[in-house]
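Q: I have two molecules that I believe assemble together. Could you output structure tokens for the complex as a whole instead of separate predictions?
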Amino acid sequence: GESVGLHLPTLSVQEGDNSIINCAYSNSASDYFIWYKQESGKGPQFIIDIRSNMDKRQGQRVTVLLNKTVKHLSLQIAATQPGDSAVYFCAEIGNAGNMLTFGGGTRLMVKP
Amino acid sequence: NAGVTQTPKFRVLKTGQSMTLLCAQDMNHEYMYWYRQDPGMGLRLIHYSVGEGTTAKGEVPDGYNVSRLKKQNFLLGLESAAPSQTSVYFCASSYSQETQYFGPGTRLLVL
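A: Yes, here they are, computed for all two components at once.
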């Protein structure tokens, strides 16, 4: 069925380096995507979103890229900091009654 | 604004017991949701509500019931808890069907 998934379950980066977290989606009809950050013991926190009519959107230290041709979404974090250590989820407006469908998550570990 | 709050934060149940999880939001959001999150997995939608007095099934509704008697509250009930319902439960709310704001979660252990 339609699904949202992630390529890598764990990503380890050096503090100060840039991080790239990837997400593949299969529902070509999806038109809205969100990245969430979840720290240990907390609920998911909204980071950034993008609509399908855009290829790129930038926030503070974060950039989301959308490639509709290959149905791929990525989250780029510039100058990664220890506070960025968390699990990151991508989500799409999917096929469950137009509710958000979440991917499995990628754990980002930042080495000092 | 408190945002989305959940009570209780943690609960231990015996198999067959019942309980209700309470979610409250003070953002005047129409949409509210209940998810469960199992170790190493993403969030799965249990039930949701698009407005006061309405509820609908999500991806994994079996074993759960919900009620939305007031716009600000969304209750999740377990009538007869099973060990398979051991999980972390997250409530969320949203103004539209897009960006959802999450509560801190309720950890449930069913023995």
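A: One point stands out. The mean pLDDT of chain B is 94.
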